[in-house]
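User:
Care to share a sequence and structure tokens?

Assistant:
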Amino acid sequence: MRYRPLGSSGLKVSVVGLGSWLTLGNAIDATASARVVAHAFERGINLFDTADVYAQGEGERALGVAIRSLPRHRLVLATKCFFPMSDDCNDRGLSRKHVHESLRASLQRLGTDYVDLYQCHRFDPEVPLLETAMAMDDLIRRGLTLYWGTSQWPADKIAEVVALCRQEGLHRPIGNQPLYNLFDRGIEAAIVPTAAQHGIGQLVYSPLAQGVLTGKYLPGQPAPAGSRATDERSNQFVGRYLADARLRQAQQLVALAAASGQTATQLALAFCLRDARISSVLVGARTPEQLDGSLAAVDVTLTTAQLHELERIFPA
């Protein structure tokens, strides 16, 4: 495993992190979740990412059970808040009330006294930015989280909150969690450079585009049995990647990888990690074997020829 600092902070994270968006406590049960988490830790992964809204708390519960036997000080545990957790008007967003109450609920589900990174799952236009920044600073001063970050925030709001934190003497965010893969390269233009300018690293999610970039889905053919696209528990978001045009791009990726004795998974993840400003790619896995396929990307360095070909196949 290799490790990178998260932005300009002293926190180091594994370049491949284990996410739990559609897997832990959702597509796989508690036993399978524990098996995948234990294998991830054995292979050197220290970053485990979740959110309160994942399966309405079940993702955090499954992760909490899975890490009970692991040394807490060796884990970088990250979770998030923003999305509604009930019908209550205050049980959502980034108000001071919701941020504090959400983290306490997450800690209970995770079975831990603190998280390493607490992230604002989206930007909240209904709450003053200072209120959110002060709430995060307060949580850090209380030791309930060590760092805070954002997720899917636009570049201008990232810059604004950092300036605000500096002005008010508050702990600033150190990480941002955006969508990023060969299909979705929008963060390259403004978000990555803006965040880097302010010492914020990227923990990118869906780097394999819901598994489509592995090449297992073929144009004009039904999705393979047992794949995410056939699982009603986790197929809500994969549809936009299943257009034949995108599936043909994925098959070109497979061919490019095969020419060098590599896999499409390796090339797709290595493409994200080619940029040192990407601290980690967050992958999901249902089995240890599936996770190993992603971990094979850790030591892959793309050649100039491969990079040129990827730019041709997947233009920004």
